[in-house]
UniProtKB/TrEMBL annotation:
Residues annotated for homogentisate binding in this entry: H374
Signal peptide: none
Domain Homogentisate 1,2-dioxygenase N-terminal: 5-281
Active site positions, chain numbering: H295
Protein's name according to its UniProt entry: homogentisate 1,2-dioxygenase
Tagged with keyword Iron: yes
Named cofactor requirement(s): Fe cation
């Protein structure tokens, strides 16, 4: 499949032009920009943010962004939620809800915007504090519609179907073994590489107020995990379409609004800066694990983090579990039983196993709430206890799980807990029949 052209390097200062000489030299706001374009700045941080965290891009456009109609309320998607302090849409639960793959609508044309449904989250965007976890289930392209999110950055993980994303800065092709980030304030639209089934599904992690960055590597050193060179950014690609009705759906303070432009919003001919959308391929992740004994913490699989004010504590971490070797000796190799002060939301992305025989098939998601116990199920425990070899185990290619983790207690929506009809309410069945091996007369009773 043909992909687009990209520039590489996380957080770099890039520049791109779709026409020769379209990018002004030396200055940002010349009196007469090339080709009769208009200068416009998009800021992702305050003007006075430290230079190492200052995010902005200069765009050179056919039309200023102000050329649009008034905003009116948009009623096309009542299940996209951002305010988790309002009890109207919230269902508080201390259980560990597990969702089977969310169904893609069988009838009608549902595009990316109208297909987004909120599962859980915390906080709300007006105070730039919190996050939301959504699922999208869609059947059609956005065509002459675009979306702009004033509340937070979208980290999008496609699970079913390939995303063909057009942004103001260029195009991204994002497959189910990849993810992308669309920072807030950037116009984009999602079309799909069509399949016979016309079914598309994935998950979205939205963070309010802050942005994703690479985690610190500490004693790991200068290399490993997700390397800067493997993050890909678009190149300039513009549309010059006039006398057309282009609908812009905007999420602002958790509310959806609609406005109309008489031209394509993707009319940026050149740009330079560091506030941009990007994508990443899971297969390029360089995993770190224990080479001798014990099960290390899942933080070693962190791809991106959104830091809080507390050192080492994240508003959100994005973690993946890629193909790798498990080589530990005399070690229970399954994830340990856990009560975590952080909330965890694992999702199944890809699998080579038969979905009918898996309790966590691709498209599934689970919420492990703060300090609520979780761990391996009885069948997995028995298989691990019966293992007779210390031979290295290879997790196969084609299997990917990911996880969103947060310091916040996440509040589930009424849609996710009731209307979605996808809750697996028998999650405790795999734990309640765990074999009790304790024998106070035999120190080797687990052998």
């Amino acid at each position: 499949m043909k992909d687009y052209e990209y520039q590489a390097g996380f957080g770099n200062e890039f520049q791109s032009e779709a026409l020769p000489g379209a990018l002004p030299e030396v200055q940002n706001t010349p009196q007469h920009p090339p080709y009769g374009l208009y200068s416009e700045q998009l800021n992702g941080s305050s003007f006075t943010a430290p230079r190492s965290h200052n995010l902005r891009t200069w765009l050179y456009k056919i039309h200023p962004a102000t050329m649009q109609g008034p905003s009116v309320s948009y009623k096309g998607n009542p299940d996209l939620i951002s305010n988790f302090l309002d009890p109207v849409n919230i269902h508080v639960s201390a259980s560990q809800p597990k969702w089977t793959p969310f169904e893609v609508p069988a009838n009608g044309k549902i595009d990316f915007i109208d297909g987004i449904k909120t599962i859980c989250g915390a906080g709300e965007p007006t105070l730039a504090s919190g996050l939301a976890i959504h699922v999208y289930t869609s059947t059609s392209n956005m065509n002459n519609r675009a979306f702009v999110n004033s509340d937070g950055d979208f980290l999008i993980v496609p699970q079913l179907g390939i995303l063909d994303i057009q942004t103001e800065f260029g195009k991204l092709l994002v497959q189910p073994n990849e993810f992308c980030v669309i920072p807030r304030g950037i116009h984009f639209k999602v079309n799909f590489v069509e399949t016979l089934e016309h079914q598309y599904r994935g998950y979205i992690l939205e963070v309010f107020g802050r942005h994703f960055e690479l985690p610190d590597l500490g004693p790991i050193g200068a290399n490993g995990l997700a390397n800067r060179r493997d993050f890909l950014y678009p190149v300039a690609c513009y549309e010059h379409i006039e006398n057309v009705e282009y609908k812009i759906i905007q999420k602002f303070q958790g509310v959806l609004f609609e406005t109309t432009k008489k031209h394509s919003p993707f009319d940026v001919v050149s740009w330079h800066g560091n506030y941009l959308p990007f994508k990443y391929d899971f297969s390029r992740f360089c995993p770190i694990t224990s080479a001798r004994f014990d099960h290390l913490d899942p933080s070693i699989f962190t791809v991106l983090t959104c830091k809080s004010e507390t050192p080492g504590t994240a508003i959100a971490d994005f973690v993946i579990f890629p193909p790798r070797y498990s080589t530990q000796e005399n070690t229970f190799r399954l994830p340990y039983f856990h009560r975590n002060c952080m909330s965890e939301f694992p999702i199944a992305v890809l699998s080579t196993s038969d979905p009918s025989k898996s309790s966590f098939s691709p498209g599934s998601g689970t919420l492990f709430q703060t300090l609520i116990p979780h761990g391996p199920e009885s069948k997995s425990i028995e298989a691990e206890m019966a293992r007779k070899t210390e031979q290295a185990l290879r997790f196969p290619d084609g299997n990917f799980e990911a996880m969103f983790e947060s310091m916040f207690q996440l509040r589930t929506t009424k849609w996710a807990m009731n209307a979605s009809n996808m809750i697996n309410r028998n999650i405790h069945g795999g734990w309640n029949d765990i074999k009790i091996r304790f024998d106070p007369t035999n120190i080797n009773s687990n052998s």
